[in-house]
Amino acid sequence: MGIDGYRFRSIPLFLHLRKEFNLKSNAIFIYNDIGMNYPWLKTEQKSFWGAGDYDHGIYYDGGVGYKIFLKRHAVVFGGGFSLKEFTEHRASTFCPFNGPCYEQADEYFYSLKRITLKLGVQL
Question: Fewer beta carbons within 10 angstroms: which end of the chain, N or C?
């Protein structure tokens, strides 16, 4: 679980799987995170036309990495692909030129993809 601020703030809840292949003094690893993405939008991220209702979607993050062991710690490099999705349902009232007003329902599907580069220290 975490907070993801890429384009729209959200809370991904996921299962993390990782497999390391140890070398003599280093390691190569692959990782895969899969779960659900729950939107948690800031006020300024909501639509100009008003707040909508948001449904959760899929969260995925997967890639490869390299770990360099030091005495008690390690430096970790990684890269991969990330995907987060969610849906917005928005209803608005439209009154053209003093005529009859009508309700309009719109649905927006967000599919945000990115390539990730990671650098960290393992304590």
Answer: C
